[in-house]
Amino acid sequence: MNGHNLIFATKAITSTFINKLLNISSFEINIFKSYILGEVNINKGGRVIFQHNARTRKNFLLNVTGGRVSVGKNVFFNNNVRIHSMGSVSIGDNCMFGENISIYDHDHKFSDLSKTKAEQGFDLGKVYIGSNVWIGTGAIILKNVNIGDNSVISAGAIVTKDVPANTVYIQKRESVFLDI
How does pLDDT run across 158-180, given as a tens digit for each residue? Predict the structure, then answer.
């Protein structure tokens, strides 16, 4: 093992160990078979399970407040992936996540005009991502979405509806130019 690999391995094991220690009763991970370079926050009875060979690059953020997050085997999260769970997020085996991806299984309630949005709480849901899925850079996955096995989500996509298995999901946007 060269010096660079040794430093990386030391950082990965240390970061994962600290996250495990801070969330000892609610975070299931083998610190020698998976690693997290980032931050894990588990509150209010939340639960997180990482299977073997799940790994992240830097600035990974996992916020779980009362929710449950399950990550399968051989899952790779690139830089700056964010997962926010108050309900349930399930990720299958052999998935790849590009940079700057956000996943939310909830959103704010806002229909009661007599209350502030902060007072109304949250509408909880689920996110299910099957096995062998590739999520492109900058994608946003929102609550109550199922992404089927072997699917590809294009870079920059905002996923608000189910994506069938064996599908490439491309969200086209029209460029508009206006004179000043």
Answer: 999 999 999 999 987 777 777 87
Burial class (CB in 10 A: 0-12, 13-18, 19+), 124: middle
What's the rounded Cα separation, in Å, for the pair 80 and 94?
19
What distance in Å separates the CA atoms of residue 99 and residue 79, rounded to the nearest whole number?
5
Instruction: Check the CA dihedral 5-8-12-13 and report its sign.
Output: positive
Model pLDDT for residues 104-120, shown as the tens digit of each residue: 999 999 899 999 988 99
Q: How many CB atoms lie within 10 A of CB 55?
A: 17
Letter string b/e over residues 100-121, b meaning 16 or more CB atoms within 10 A of that residue's CB: bbbbbbbeeeeeeeeeeeeeee
Among all residues, which ones are annotated catalytic? 108
Q: Are 129 and 165 in contact (CB under 8 A)?
A: no
Task: Record the tokens describing residue 76, joined without a space.
Answer: 């790779």
